[in-house]
Amino acid sequence: VLGLLRPTDPTWAERAARALDRVLADHAHCEMKAASNALALSTRCFDTPRVIRALLDLAEEELRHYRQVLDELDRRGLALGAPEEDYYAAELRRRVSGRRSDRSVRRVIVDRLLVGALIEARSCERFRLLARALDAKEPALALFYDELFVAEARHHRTLIDIALDLEPDESQVRSRLAAIAAIEADVVASLAGGPTIHG
Ligand SMILES: [Fe+2]
Ligand SMILES: [Fe+2]
Predict the structure, then answer these.
(1) Which residue, 22, 133, 175, 192, could crosslink 13 as a Cys pair with Cβ 3.0–4.6 Å?
(2) Alpha carbon of 141 to ligand 2 centroid (Å)
(3) pLDDT 10s digits, 94-122
(4) How far away, in angstroms, is 33 Cα from ligand 1 center?
């Protein structure tokens, strides 16, 4: 799926579907973080108005998702709770910035966009797995995750397009994306597969 080099362990979705309380709360936090990450990136692209607009559109959509997941928690009488540690995203960022030779401002922003694109791709893959696992017992929620699957696939492409807009050397972006995808696959291989969106 979407340039991911390692598929998620298929048994993850079964565990996630059995722990929906925890998955939904974690998912809400993920949407909030996606929105605030897009906003934070937009402030660093202050000299490229079309990029600011594209990141604002993304942030607004992620905020809508955040609200939708909060609504789902409310309907189920569940509390949001404090965010759990997202080892996957933190470790991916740590490994990518540790292996970056060129530390120019533009390269750092392009890396952050491409890391974001990979996180969107992984979330997209997992939403589809979750939708399938929920199909029989939670059809409405399965439909919601199918819609999010489509949105996250689009976000994956949007973030790559923005990186290509900022970095005119397309081969540079493509090779960096391939390197980050390899790192992402290594991080995924080290996950315990617990019932969180990136578990
Ligand atoms: Fe989202
Ligand atoms: Fe997204």
Answers:
(1) 133
(2) 18
(3) 999 987 777 788 899 999 999 999 999 99
(4) 9
